[in-house]
Amino acid sequence: MKLLGSPASPYTRKVRVVLAEKRIECEMELVDVQPAENPVNAHNPLGKIPTLLLDDGSALYDSRVIVDFLDARSPISRLIPDETRDRLAVRRWEALADGVLDAGLLVRYESLREPRERSQSWSAKQVSRMHRALAAMAKDLESKPWCHNDRYSLADIAVGCCLGWLGFRKPGDVDWHGEYPGLAQHYRKLMERSAFADSVPEAPK
After folding, report:
1. What are the phi and psi torsion angles at 182 (to 5°)?
2. 35-42 LR contacts (CB < 8 Å, sep 24+)
3. d(CA 77, CA 50)
4. Complete domains list, the chain, with CATH
5. Which three-class secondary structure state does DSSP give residue 204?
6. What distance, in Å, lies between the first and last C-alpha atoms of the chain?
7. Residues ≥6 apart with Cβ < 8 Å to 142
8. CA triplet 77, 82, 84: central angle to 5 degrees?
9. Distance between CA atoms of residues 60 and 72, nearest Å
10. Tens of pLDDT, residues 141-153
11. How far apart are CA 99 and CA 94, in angstroms?
């Protein structure tokens, strides 16, 4: 298998952490999807990362689809519960974390536009979404050891990749370390796992 992605992408990082936790060997090819014509287009019509190329020549895309496939591929360190209620709870955490990232990316892209073309109200709306979701995460996590029940799961991976990217790119100057200390503490615990520590993106230039 080969993973097409970028170290700076939080969705790529999610897949990389799952690969490490599942102890699945996978080559990674760094790709730039900014140009309209890029290497990913031949495998993923959306031209997005991460995209996972399988041994049979087919491809999987969207990090949620990829991690579902990887978790089912190996019995080691099951990250998505089998029981319906627990599985939905874990995927709900993932959806919330990914939603924060979606809003954060919109804020970042808006900041890269020409100043006269930027919409402050648009960015403010996305920042509000981020804060509501982060507050919900902090409330649901509270003093629990892990996001769902008493075991590490995909929920924690998704939240960790979300928080790591917010600290990396700082969209909208959201200070999640200071405003949500419970989340900061949870992230510090996640960073004790080699799968997270080994996948930290380089500081932005």
Report:
1. -65, -40
2. 39/4, 40/4
3. 22
4. 2-73 (3.40.30.10), 84-193 (1.20.1050.10)
5. coil
6. 31
7. 182
8. 145
9. 14
10. 998 999 999 999 9
11. 8
Report residue 130 as tokens.
Answer: 């981020």
Task: For 94-123, write each residue's pLDDT tens digit.
Answer: 999 999 999 999 999 999 999 999 999 999
**Using CB atoms within 10 A of its CB, is residue 59 exposed (0-12), middle (13-18) or buried (19+)?**
middle
Positive/negative CA dihedral, 41, 46, 52, 53: negative
Low-confidence ranges of the chain (pLDDT < 50): 205
Angle of the 120-141 helix axis to the 181-190 helix axis, nearest 10: 70
pLDDT at 201: 82
Q: Which CA distances in Å does 57 have to 14, 19, 42, 77? A: 23, 19, 11, 27
Specify the pTM. 0.95
> What is the per-residue pLDDT for 143?
85
73/22 Cα distance (integer angstroms): 9
Q: Are 130 and 150 in contact (CB under 8 A)?
A: no
- DSSP, collapsed to helix, strand or coil, labels residue 166 as helix
